[in-house]
């Protein structure tokens, strides 16, 4: 979504989904995905294998200096259990747990020997009644999870205070130094308190095979959603209907959440970089920037496509679109081991500048991608690219006076020889987009049974016919939903 300062943009994966009443027997499409993936659980299990998680913690311990302690807290549960819970990405990366309160305590003594302790709450039958069973001290095994030991969260201060007595450095993540008193943790003088986040961010930067598989699934689901949006969009719809179509597809394919607020900006809103109100009614002739991404098991896709509401680009829209596309292709060509995000940005922005639109490209071209949409802000843009890193390439041109905003974003994996575009299944050229939109009737363009909405009366406020292909009001009390 963000450029440079990080423009998050979401991209769609490209696959054509067999979808619809007459397609219940549809087989795999060309990307190999059937109507519903049956291997989501396997992918998640492989991505969060205990042996893999334990290896990550060992790598982190190795990076710590001798005589140090690292304490990482899980995200606290929300004040009300019906509010959403999102685990801190660092904690998820190292433990695979999606709950709090829990703590990870890594201790490295003066001889370089390490301890890897997980603190879990005891089983709480009352909470189970409301929230269901969750991993607890009673249900888990240290050996199975690959920890030196499991401890009760109530022992946190005792364990940390004892470890700090023999240490020189105290690394913290997920909780603040000034809050340590709340946990009865006393830092002895002579122990320096530091942040653990940079060391963990550096580990997270290079993805292993399980992580790449999870990212690919998030991206493929996003691709399906982008394609469905292209097939569904109509003049007269609101932007939030496009968003609904996209997010329905996320859930339909197993991604529980969007990775970030979906950006569906049409007409003048196509020029608002992080627009997420999505409340405008779309008109024939508008472009829409759909910058969206599914979060699959914690891993974030981020794919942007720009397409015309009517299904056909105007000559001017096509002209601007093709400059952005050329810039994006130049940016992708610059992704290879040894280069940096600055090189990628230079390659993309040179194309836009030479075309005379330099001042209309106001954001950076890339950000890292993984367990966060910006994965993470800790990692410098000067970092030298290595195989296994994943980044976005997303130049844009935004001409507010003409209501033309175009952004194209793909998710790219650095490989030994160069790179692989993970989101290349989503149509990207003008011809490909116009072809997929032609005569298409996606899930969001289908009629549903008329519903009774109280309070709606035919009035002068009724939209004029030219605003929409079809009049959405079929009577004084009935609104036909597309
Ligand atoms: Mn992005």
Keywords:
disordered C terminus, binds manganese (II) ion, three-stranded antiparallel beta sheet, globular, 482 residues, alpha+beta, Creatine Amidinohydrolase, Chain A, domain 1, Creatine Amidinohydrolase, 21 strands, six-stranded mixed beta sheet
**How many strands appear in the DSSP assignment?**
21
In CATH terms, the superfamily of the largest domain is: Creatinase/methionine aminopeptidase superfamily
CATH topology of the largest domain: Creatine Amidinohydrolase
Sheet of most strands:
6 strands, mixed
For the termini, the CA-CA separation is 28 Å
Helix % is: 25-40%
Task: Describe the protein in words.
Strand 1 (2-3) and strand 2 (6-7) form a beta hairpin. 28% of the residues lie in helices and 17% in strands. The chain is built from 12 helices and 21 strands. Helix 1 (40-47) runs antiparallel to helix 8 and helix 10 (315-333) runs antiparallel to helix 11 (341-354). The protein is of the alpha+beta class and 482 residues long. The strands form 7 sheets. A 6-stranded mixed sheet has the order 6-5-4-3-7-8, sandwiched between helices. It has a 3-stranded antiparallel sheet with strand order 9-12-13. It is globular. The two termini are 28 Å apart. It has 3 domains: 2-9 and 207-435, Creatinase/methionine aminopeptidase superfamily (Creatine Amidinohydrolase); 42-205, Creatinase/prolidase N-terminal domain (Creatine Amidinohydrolase, Chain A, domain 1, 3-Layer(aba) Sandwich), CATH 3.40.350.10; 447-482, no CATH class. The site of manganese (II) ion (MN) has 9 residues, from loops. Manganese (II) ion binds next to loops.
């Amino acid at each position: 979504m963000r450029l440079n300062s990080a423009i998050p943009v979401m991209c769609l994966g490209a696959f054509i989904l067999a979808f619809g009443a007459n397609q219940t027997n549809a087989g795999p499409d060309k990307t190999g995905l059937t109507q519903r993936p049956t291997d989501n659980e396997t992918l998640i299990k492989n991505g969060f294998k205990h042996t893999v998680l334990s290896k990550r913690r060992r790598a982190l311990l190795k990076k710590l200096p001798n005589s140090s302690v690292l304490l990482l807290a899980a995200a606290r549960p929300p004040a009300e259990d019906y509010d959403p819970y999102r685990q801190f990405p660092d904690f998820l990366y190292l433990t695979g747990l999606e709950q709090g309160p829990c703590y990870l305590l890594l201790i490295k003594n003066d001889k370089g020997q390490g301890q890897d302790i997980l603190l879990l709450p005891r089983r709480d039958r009352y909470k189970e009644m409301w929230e269901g069973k969750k991993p607890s001290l009673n249900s888990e095994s240290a050996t199975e999870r690959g920890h030196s030991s499991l401890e009760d969260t109530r022992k946190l201060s005792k364990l940390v205070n004892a470890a700090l007595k023999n240490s020189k450095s105290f690394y913290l993540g997920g909780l603040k130094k000034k809050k340590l008193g709340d946990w009865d943790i006393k830092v002895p003088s002579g122990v320096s308190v530091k942040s653990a986040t940079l060391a963990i961010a550096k580990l997270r930067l290079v993805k292993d095979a399980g992580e790449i598989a999870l990212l690919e699934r998030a991206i493929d689901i996003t691709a399906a959603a982008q394609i469905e949006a292209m097939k569904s969009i109509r003049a007269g719809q609101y932007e939030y209907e496009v968003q609904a179509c996209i997010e329905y597809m996320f859930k339909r394919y197993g991604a529980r959440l969007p990775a970030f607020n979906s950006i569906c900006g049409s007409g003048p809103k196509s020029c608002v970089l992080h627009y997420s109100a999505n409340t405008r009614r779309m008109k024939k002739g508008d472009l829409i920037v759909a910058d969206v991404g599914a979060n699959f098991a914690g891993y974030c896709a981020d794919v942007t496509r720009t397409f015309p509401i009517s299904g056909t680009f105007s000559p001017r829209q096509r002209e601007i679109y093709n400059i952005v596309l050329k810039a994006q292709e130049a940016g992708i060509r610059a992704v290879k081991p040894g280069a940096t995000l600055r090189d990628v940005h230079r390659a993309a922005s040179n194309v836009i500048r030479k075309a005379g639109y330099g001042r209309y490209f106001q954001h950076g071209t890339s950000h890292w991608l993984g367990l966060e949409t910006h994965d993470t802000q800790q990692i410098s843009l000067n970092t030298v690219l290595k195989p296994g890193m994943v980044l976005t390439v997303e130049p844009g041109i935004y001409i507010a006076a003409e209501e033309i905003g175009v952004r194209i974003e793909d998710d790219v994996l650095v490989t030994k020889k160069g790179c692989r575009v993970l989101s290349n299944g989503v149509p990207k050229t003008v011809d490909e987009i116009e072809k997929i939109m032609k005569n298409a009737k996606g899930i969001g363009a289908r009629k549903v049974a008329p519903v009774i909405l109280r309070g709606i009366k035919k009035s002068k406020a009724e939209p004029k016919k030219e605003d929409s292909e079809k009049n959405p009001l079929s009577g004084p009390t009935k609104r036909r939903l597309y």
